[in-house]
Amino acid sequence: MKPFELKTSTPEETMEFSKRLGQLLQAGDVLTLEGDLGAGKTTFTKGLAKGLDIAKTVNSPTFTIIKEYRGRLPLYHMDVYRVEDSFEDLGFDEYFDGEGVTVVEWAHLIQEQLPKELLEIQLFHGEEDSRRIQMMPHGKRYEELCKEIFQ
Ligand code: ADP
Ligand code: MG
Fold first, then answer.
1. What CATH class is the domain 4-150?
2. Which residue in 106, 104, 91 sits closest to 34, CA to CA?
3. How close is the Cα of 15 to the center of ligand 2, in Å?
4. How many whole angstroms from 150 Cα to the centroid of ligand 2?
């Protein structure tokens, strides 16, 4: 399957898109975010949070690895950039199998611990403020989700 793809020209546009995605998310959904520093992973998560009716501002959880926010569903926001040992078990499963939505920045660093089914999202820098957002669904749930948002 080819990845679903869109381009945005501003951070607001990225958040507008991820907000729409956030509105469609369900308990147990897992999304991974990959891309260079500044590509927009946290910006994307901010929009998702809006779509989950989270009032608090989402910030980069770099120093805490996992931050939890309350909304329509809980959001578990992980940034595993500083996880040193990819096999170190920080109890990720409890989040992946939990009542909320999990978003993992730099997810490849804990590749071995990720669930099989998830929505893989990659962000690429373009000229100036443009970003290319690629979404690759792994599993039926995420294929349906991508079809719905890109229809
Ligand atoms: P990451 O979490 O990937 O390191 P951030 O979301 O923290 O990235 O930072 C992305 C930066 O790029 C922010 O300052 C954001 O305002 C800016 N930006 C510019 N254009 C865009 C865009 N089209 N989409 C997302 N972010 C953008
Ligand atoms: Mg970030």
1. alpha beta
2. 106
3. 14
4. 25
